[in-house]
Amino acid sequence: MGNILTDIQEKYRHGSICLKFIYINIGIFIATYILNLIFLLFNTPLTIWRWFELPADILTFLRQPWSIITYMFMHANLLHLAFNMLWLWAFGRLFLIFFSSRHFRGVYFLGGLCGGLLYILSYNIFPYFSEAVYSAMMVGASASILAITVAVAVREPEYQVNLMFIGRIRLKYVALIMVIADIMLIVSQNAGGHIAHLGGALAGWWFAAALAKGHDVTAWINKCINWLTEGWAHLTAPRKPKMEVHYGKHQKDYDFNARKKAQSDEIDRILDKLKQSGYDSLTAEEKKRLFDAGRK
Questions:
Q1: CA atoms within 13 A on the CB side of 83
Q2: What does the CA dihedral 132, 135, 139, 143 come to, rounded to 10 degrees?
Q3: pTM of the prediction?
Q4: pLDDT digits 0-9 by tens, 208-239
Q5: Best label site of 137, 141, 214, 274, fewest CB within 10 Å?
């Protein structure tokens, strides 16, 4: 068991940013599943996870604003997780061919944020969702993954990929099919998920289009993440013992050595002058210092 955990840690440490995010999603799913299972065995369902799911109701969201981040790392079931992670692995690796790891991290969060906000706005604006708005909750990394997929499609629309049962297809058609499918399924049972997908797709397009013009819309996200991680690293880093500084004898020794070196440098300068220009070129003060040094 120890070897397995060590291998996982090594793969996480040396893996790509895409693999790291997959590991995080899987790790959170396993942890929540085990905790839920334990509490169910004692007939006490664990309802705390609702605090990490994204609510459609605005007032509920204001009581748990962190859920706009946490929801994009949680999944409803194993099939939901498996499908999303396979999609993230396929298009995440492709994303890293054309963009950086820093961009991957930023687009993942940007897609999740845009998808979550569009989901909340839609449920509170359109009367169609009025009956479901107070009970609707959302989890999943789909919006983030759609942002990554669309960003690659905007960057390299003619790039071809192999899809199961379909064959080779250009990225622009992959993105177009996904967006059209989500629009058609807005009024389905998983309406919130498909609305979030569209928000993620818009985020991916926004990122790629802006970056082509030299503007990185994910820069602020990465700055926030860096600030948080650096702050956490500072808090958890072992404190170094303060160095005690003792004055007195050591300070006197330092001052004595400094004076000795200055005197030695001055004598060396006078001797160099003596060799080059002769004894008559020395000033009275230089002659005195040379004489005093010869007596020591």
A1: 9
A2: 30
A3: 0.76
A4: 999 999 999 999 999 999 998 887 766 666 66
A5: 214
C-alpha distances out from residue 21 to 67, 153, 249, Å: 18, 21, 58
Residue 244's pLDDT is: 53
The backbone region for 214, taken as left when phi is positive above 0, alpha when psi lies in -120 to 50, beta otherwise, is left
What does the block give as tokens for 291? 């004489």
CA-based nearest residue to 159, from 98, 85, 83 = 98
- Could you write out the three-class secondary structure of the chain? CHHHHHHHHHHHHHCCHHHHHHHHHHHHHHHHHHHHHHHHHCCCCCCHHHHCCEECCHHHHHHCCCHHHHHHHCCCCHHHHHHHHHHHHHHHHHHHHHCCHHHHHHHHHHHHHHHHHHHHHHHHHCHHHCCCCCCCEECCCHHHHHHHHHHHHHHCCCCEEEECCCEEEEHHHHHHHHHHHHHHCCCCCCHHHHHHHHHHHHHHHHHHHHHHCCCCCCHHHHHHHHHHHHHHHHHHCCCCCCCCCCCCHHHHHHHHHHHHHHHHHHHHHHHHHHHHHCHHHCCHHHHHHHHHHHHC
Q: Are 181 and 130 spatial neighbours (Cβ–Cβ below 8 Å)?
A: no
Phi, psi of 189 (to 5 degrees): -65, -35
Confirm if 108 and 172 have CB atoms less than 8 A apart: no
In order of start, what are the domains of the chain with their CATH numbers? Answer: 2-222 (1.20.1540.10), 249-295 (no CATH)
Q: Which two tokens stand for residue 81?
A: 């997780």
For the chain, residues with pLDDT lower than 70 are 1-2, 233-258, 261, 274-280, 282, 287, 290-291, 293-296
Structure tokens at 274: 């003596």
